[in-house]
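Researcher: Go.
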Amino acid sequence: MHPVISLHPSDHVAIARAALPAGTSVANGIIASVRIPAGHKVAVRAIAQGEQVRRYNQVIGVARVDIAAGEHVHVQNLGMGDFAKDYAYGQDVRPTDYVEAPATFEGIRRPDGRVATRNYIGILTSVNCSAHVAGLVADAFKRHPMIGIEPLADYPNVDGVVALTHKTGCGMAEGEPLKLLRRTLAGYARHPNFSHIVVLGLGCEVNQIGVMLKEHNLSDRIRNMDIQAMGGTRKTVEAGMDFVRDVLTEANHVRRETVSACELKVALQCGGSDGYSGVSANPALGVASDLVVRNGGTVILSETTETYGAEHLFTHRAVSREVGEKLVNLMTWWEDYTRKHGAEINANPSPGNKAGGLTTILEKSLGAMAKAGSTNLVDVIQYAEAATAKGFVFMDTPGFDPVSATGQVAGGANVVCFTTGRGSVFGCKPAPSIKIATNTPLYTRMAEDMDVNCGTILEGEETVQESGQRIFDLILRTASGQRTKSELFDSGSAEFAPWPLGVTV
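Model: Structure:
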């Protein structure tokens, strides 16, 4: 195979398929002048200082200095710069090519008609002060098959009892931060992957359970307990355990049935990205996303800070100017938000991202947005807001994976697809999390944590289309109950992380 990957004839750079020694021929007689690390960029033409540098035929930054053909292009010579973006609202909207006979999976139909992919009993907390008590209740029902402890052995249709705790709920003012927390908790409380929910509070916190239940019309669905009113830790734990025992039989009565893939709501995530993310795993997940949408389902892309700089490509696909402007307004909000806190939105790439070959937020965003495929942008929603539209939906979230995925699941996502180039051990109860590796060395090194290897694309063994079909097929099997690698490790409760917006007082 050729030692570099060229994505577009107009690009100034190509991507090293593996580490390239100095002297390697990379393109049209151009020789690498220095060693190029795997996944990093090499200049395939001379670039003048101040010139816009292109990858994916899109601007990823501006040359800080003159860059000769064959040089390594990275943080030492490539930086951010201003460039005009044409939002051209809706100019690329196309009719969705729906399949005539949608695919199916084996889901759990709830009494209200919604479809679950898992069947948990959930313990939520209104405040961090009740976190330990919630954990004690869940631990009483935790499976330990290695030592023969199976407290749910008589309830094979119950996936587990999970406590989802967080670090806030008090010391906060009434306003948007509290509304956001309550919206997140309410989204989990009504998630179809929970058969029953109990909410534990301390009693004196700002986030009063009764107010949250009333605001979100949850009173008929949730049992709630305050530790202070119950009489302390032991009595609350006993009452919580009694609640779980009381509902286990009912929870176990579910049966899976064949349902349409239109019931899928797939959260799209990436973390620990590298230079291959935008070449292999993300475009492959984009193909799978298109298949979900063509089968009548929903995909939810988030991480607003990792869409920054590339949002104009989504406004081109917005079904209306109103939808497109919602996305642009989010970027303006984030610019102001980061400025107020002395940060820069364009400083987003992490040390791991940079080690993997990503240089600027523009480059990272262009690769990340490939996860959403090519269908129309049908809606833009707030953090943890219910995703009700069918098709490609964008949800406003930070770029930090646990916080972002928490918002997506609160919005109703019943499967999570997570691409990574550096590695991840992410889980996201109550939704199963599929982890997709961008390269074979990562997949081999972390085989117990990775569900899919997209390094086959880099090695010429598989096309992006073929890999995307394979991911879509795995989404269907996972939604039908097949365990993901993170589920085998029982990951996903500690990763619950509502967005801590606002000031702690």
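Model: Residues 258-488 form one domain.
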